[in-house]
Design brief:
Distance between the termini: 35 Å
Number of strands: 22
Largest sheet: 5 strands, mixed
CATH topology of one domain: FAD/NAD(P)-binding domain
Strand content: 15-25%
Bound molecules: NADP nicotinamide-adenine-dinucleotide phosphate
Helix content: 25-40%
Strand order of the largest sheet: 1-7-6-5-19
């Protein structure tokens, strides 16, 4: 089936969790909706990221939809942190349970989206030649959906098996009897390295910048515990929405367990801090960072967290040279997304695993048979690239998006993304960006942020209808204010010191602007709710002439 000049009330790009829930809401509101999806199934990030060991670093019971109490009661998660296959099953279950697939076209990549001002329509095209239009266009394209290939000479010369973590093939990949090389030590690598190490003959990890990682303390979920938790699901969800238990959620029934032990690092002595961090470490998960509330705002507090993790790395890794190389010193803990691992550091004690510190022996080039370092050649049968993404703006730049007066989004964002609330943009009327730059998105549990944005978009469309308005757009003043506010908020934290993908620092030539909103899901929701209560302050609703 192919769409030709097809007319819809709304078009959604992407069938990940954001696209799925947006479709659910709009269909319920009586909209005729089409979703275009590049993959041949739903799931978004969980469709593509099939690398070994892939699992969520937010807890299953919190990283799931809350919009339907029946759904949350009936779905059974098996582990504290769900694996990629289990999350993909869940996404498929949701699509089937609500009969959403008939509104979706798969294996269609939207290549262009142009706003026709005279008709007040967004006209889209796909790589399969579909053409369609709708007054409302919603981007659900994900924050981490465009892989970044490393800029290393000779990459295409390699004659062995080569895989990209975020584009993992659907067939089974076998490591037995193979010399495997992994480039990168971000979350994807840190999850896959221990799994590949189990069966590879030899695994060599090529590390440029070490990252901080905390243990997941993963395990099967206890049925009685889950039952008790689900009795209070509404209360837990409410806490997550407002960020009361930290946006990563909490596995304890009693939410007090995750309350920070101190607001400021200066209020807690070294001995007490050590005890508190030890407890958080054992408990596992990224909420380790909220043991003291100013860990991401105060360098001294952060340094104490870093020292604690350095000790843990030295405790876990037998070889002191390897341990030292694994200790990050170039950035504050958490300023690059903290990793959550299962036995990552211990993996370096295996006889078949070695670490190459690229800061000492950089890669000169990739050859037909391996990697040429400054001092030696490493022979490889398989190369795994876990080299990250062109985050947050990359997926927008892949589409030729044009607003009023044929203005290109690429040009508008030439110095960094500009949005109001990460949700809409001046000159791009009726284009909504779910978890767009300028919203908490990647600094939060994505499911919570997705639901909030989708509900807000649904309310916004209802409001427009009530007003008799067909054109929704933020004002220039509100967009400018929001960008200024978001940058000011970020500057009060240690996040900008991370030289991370949050800033676009991993992509050559990308403008360095801190992209996600650092004010937290609770603070952000409060602002959005106030804006709505004040008659959608900062948005203009006008009739189409
Ligand atoms: P990433 O954090 O950006 O890590 C990319 C790695 O590749 C870095 O170690 C980087 O080193 C290295 N690299 C890039 N180019 C290189 C080069 N030319 N030579 C040597 N090394 C190079 O990417 P990621 O691991 O895919 O994770 C990205 C984000 O996705 C995470 O932060 C997280 O938000 C999300 N994610 C989440 C989960 C989860 O929920 N469990 C799992 C995976 C990913 P440098 O730092 O030196 O550039």
């Amino acid at each position: 089936m192919k769409d030709e000049q097809a007319a819809f009330d709304a078009i959604i790009i992407g069938a990940g969790f954001a696209g799925v829930y947006m479709l659910y809401r709009l269909r319920d509101m009586g909209y005729n909706v089409r979703v275009y999806e590049a993959a041949d199934g739903v799931g978004g990030t969980w469709y593509w990221n099939r690398y070994p060991g892939a699992r969520c670093d937010a807890e299953s019971l919190a990283y799931s939809f809350s919009f339907d109490e029946e759904l949350e009661q009936e779905w059974e998660w098996t582990e504290r942190y769900a694996t990629q296959p289990e999350i993909l099953d869940y996404a498929e279950h949701v699509a089937d349970r609500y009969d959403l697939r008939p509104h979706m076209l798969f294996e269609r990549r939207v290549t262009a989206a142009h706003y026709d001002e005279a008709a007040n329509l967004w006209r889209i095209q796909t790589d399969e030649g579909d053409t369609a239009h709708a007054p409302i266009l919603i981007s659900a394209i994900g924050c981490l959906s465009v892989p970044a290939l490393p800029d290393i000479p000779g990459l295409d010369d390699f004659q062995g098996e080569r895989y990209q973590a975020s584009q993992w093939p659907h067939h089974r990949v076998l490591y037995e009897d193979k010399h495997v090389g992994v480039i990168g030590t971000g979350s994807s690598a840190i999850q896959s390295i221990p799994v590949i190490a189990e069966t590879a003959q030899q695994l060599t990890v090529f590390q440029r910048t070490p990252n901080f990682s905390v243990p997941a303390a993963n395990g099967p979920l206890d049925a009685d515990w889950v039952r008790a938790y689900k009795k209070n699901y509404r209360a837990h969800r409410e806490n997550y929405k407002w960020g009361l238990t930290n946006s990563f959620g909490d596995l304890t029934i009693d939410v007090r367990h995750s309350e920070p032990v101190a607001e400021f690092g200066r209020d807690i002595n070294d001995e007490d801090l050590e005890v508190a961090l030890e407890e958080s470490w054992k408990k596992g998960g990224a909420s380790f960072m909220s043991t003291v509330m100013d860990s991401m705002a105060n360098q001294e507090t952060n340094d104490r967290f870093a020292a604690f993790i350095h000790c843990k790395i030295h405790e876990a890794v037998d070889d002191p040279v390897t341990a030292a190389a694994l200790c990050p010193t170039s950035h504050p803990v958490g300023s690059r997304r903290i990793c959550v691992d299962i036995d990552y550091y211990k993996t370096y004690n295996r006889d078949n695993v070695s670490l190459v510190n690229l800061l000492e022996t950089p890669i000169e080039r990739i050859t037909e048979t391996g990697i040429q370092l400054s001092d030696r050649h490493v022979e490889l049968d398989m190369l795994v690239l876990a080299t990250g993404f062109d985050a947050m703006t990359g997926a927008f730049n892949k589409i030729d998006i044009r607003g009023r007066g044929n203005k290109a989004l690429k040009d508008k964002w030439a110095d960094g993304p500009k949005t109001y609330l990460g949700l809409m943009m001046v000159d791009f009327p009726n284009l909504f960006t779910i978890t767009g730059p300028g919203s908490p998105s990647v600094l939060s549990n994505m499911l919570i942020s997705i639901e909030q944005h989708v509900d807000m978009i649904a309310d916004c469309l209802t409001h427009a209808k009530e007003q008799g308005a067909q054109v929704i757009e933020p004002t220039q003043l509100s967009e400018d204010y929001w960008m200024q506010h978001a940058q000011q908020m970020a500057s009060q934290t240690l996040f900008p010191k991370g030289s991370s993908w949050y800033l676009g620092a991993n992509i050559k030539g990308k403008p360095q602007v801190f992209m996600p909103y650092t004010g937290g899901v609770g603070g952000y929701r409060e602002i959005c709710d106030k804006i709505i209560a004040q008659d959608w302050r900062g948005f203009s609703f006008t009739a189409h002439a």
